[in-house]
Amino acid sequence: MWSADVEVDTDEALTGAVTLDLEGRVFRGTVVDGAVTYGRWSGRIVGGAGGLRSELTPVALASTTLRAVLEEALRAAGETIAPAADTLTAAVARWHRLRTTGDVAVAEVARAAGMPWRVLRDGTVWVGAETWAAVTVRDVDVLGREPITGCTELAGDAALDLAPGRTVTLDWVAVRVGAVTHRLDGAALRT
Which helix (H) or strand (E) covers residue 92, if one does? Predict the structure, then answer.
């Protein structure tokens, strides 16, 4: 689930659904925590409707599919499945969900399917096989590499197009992107 720690120059508290626009890349999420101090709102926004952090009640399902189990968990959490999510047609004789949070419920379905999951920029929940599709980023600078952790730091707006599950070529080396962190501090954007 993506998250953003944000500071906004305002006297009004941000609440509910919000949209972040970073150089034309739109992220849809929900404020889950925050406060105004000295004319500045500071808080956390998470991808989606914010329901993946909520506690879901126990449920027992029978003669169903992994897709139906996932859809039930997302409905209970107030979240939406991504149109590009896998069909998850595997049959399930019985599925028991204990009292747990929405993210754990989704992770259990993804684990049963043998697939990763994530909340996309548009706020929908995706479960599916990684395709490692190639993405081209131009006009970025490689600021550094940490070979032990596999991290690469980039500068430039085009790096905002990077997302987990993609492959990018940097300095003639193909890199599979497993996680992305964007940091915007004033005008300095680092990925």
Answer: strand 91-97
Evaluate whether 164 touches 179 at the Cβ level (below 8 Å): yes
CB atoms within 10 A of CB 97: 19
d(CA 19, CA 41): 15
Pull the structure tokens for residue 152.
Answer: 């690469």
Residues 51-110: tens digit of each pLDDT: 999 999 999 999 999 999 999 999 999 999 999 999 999 999 999 999 999 999 999 999
**Cα–Cα dist 107/105, whole Å:** 5
Strands of 133-135's sheet in order across: 133-135, 166-170, 173-176
- The neighbouring-strand residues paired with 4 are 45
Question: Which residue in this structure is represented by tokens 């890199």?
Answer: 175
Tokens representing 144 are 């550094």
Q: Fill in the amino acid letter for 133.
A: A
Alpha-carbon gap, residue 174 to 184, rounded angstroms? 25
CA 183 to chain CA centroid, nearest Å: 16
d(CA 154, CA 160): 10
Report the SS3 class of residue 4.
strand
